Amino acid sequence: MEQQGIGADYRKLLPIFGGAIRTAPLVFPLCEGSPYYGLFAGAQQSALQSSLESVAIKENAEWSVSGYLENRATILRNYPQMVAEERFYHLGIDIGAPCGTKLYAPLDCEAAASGYEEGEGNYGGFTVLKCNPLYMLFGHLDPGKLPPVGAKLKKGEGFAQLGNMEQNGGWYYHTHLQILTQMAFDEGWAGKGYCKESELAEIDRYCPDPLALL
User: Fold this and answer.
1) Which domains does the chain have, with CATH numbers?
2) What is the pTM of this model?
3) Which tens digit of pLDDT belongs to each residue from 46-58?
């Protein structure tokens, strides 16, 4: 699924900005067949960031989304941890916004995990919020602005902000939003932002589409 037909569903993501943004996003797929393929195929993340900003200005967009289950074999080919396991299918939605953008809890929840994953192509700062009965993973954050484990958050309460490229695993400025079932959380899927093709048939049992559940 490539969420080019996101339609009005984008409104489900707006609470994450705490009311600071109300407009539709730039839909910027990061897969083959994307109208922006030439801007990211083989590009460094800094170049991708510049290209994304240029397109957003042209389209008068304040933020961007890149979709669930996109096949990102091209953009991931320089990350050996993905290539070795052939994990190319994106398990969340990437929400792009300026570095330092503050994030707000879309639901009442509790911080089930917070930490820092080192290495290029990994999460950098991340947190997992438990919103019964599911979990919401946010990656590529500023590790100095994370909620402590056990912190209880009310809907609309600020909890994190987007990290820079030295903090977020070397990615363009965005957060990776992924839904985890209880089974997925228990089995360590919080450490998997991508899955293998052979896992797609049962992926709803682990990491269902965020837009279908928010």
Assistant:
1) 12-213 (2.70.70.10)
2) 0.96
3) 999 999 999 999 9
